[in-house]
């Protein structure tokens, strides 16, 4: 694996970068690695995370998460739906979640304490998938290459959460992308994720309730995985405003038969 990563780093250092526009109209600087390489790196990071575990063996929990992920994935563009989307539930108390390029989603069991129904869980998962769809990992890698050179790409990429890193030599721990996304990325993932969950038939107002649960559970200091935002109360207000606008989308989805029943 070490040789594979080294080769990818060399290729990445030679790759041409490009400017593109996200679905929300934000200018992005991407292209340090190809989509194929990015997906491969995401798969490697996910494999490592599962090997380290601990994984939940609760069949109901795994089926629940898989149901929510599948319902959301059906709303993605064809190219994103084509991935072999895979989810894993980790027996960890910290209420964390992440998604990686190539269609990988990880959920900690501690998240079930604050995401108390399928709609609230969908708010989390849709936000994380939003990071993947909007190429935020690509942005981070491209930015990191510009700042520190290709050597900083050893280990390549990981999710948003430092809790994933357990060993200094691991793929997950080597990269700087364990840090939360930028404020622009987090806000964009909120926008894209809330829209996605409504299109999938999940109540977009649940994103508001989720944040309220998070604040209640952690006081005024949100957990690390939701920390990159100017102010929790401001974020709730933004989610509420979008939820009101997205209720018709949710109602149309349900009228069209998109009524997830995950548990």
TrEMBL record:
Residues 60-242 form the Peptidase M48 domain. Binds 1 zinc ion per subunit. Its cofactor is Zn(2+). PROSITE patterns: PROKAR_LIPOPROTEIN. Pfam families: Peptidase_M48. Keywords: Hydrolase, Metal-binding, Metalloprotease, Protease, Signal, Zinc. Belongs to the peptidase M48 family. This is M48 family metallopeptidase.
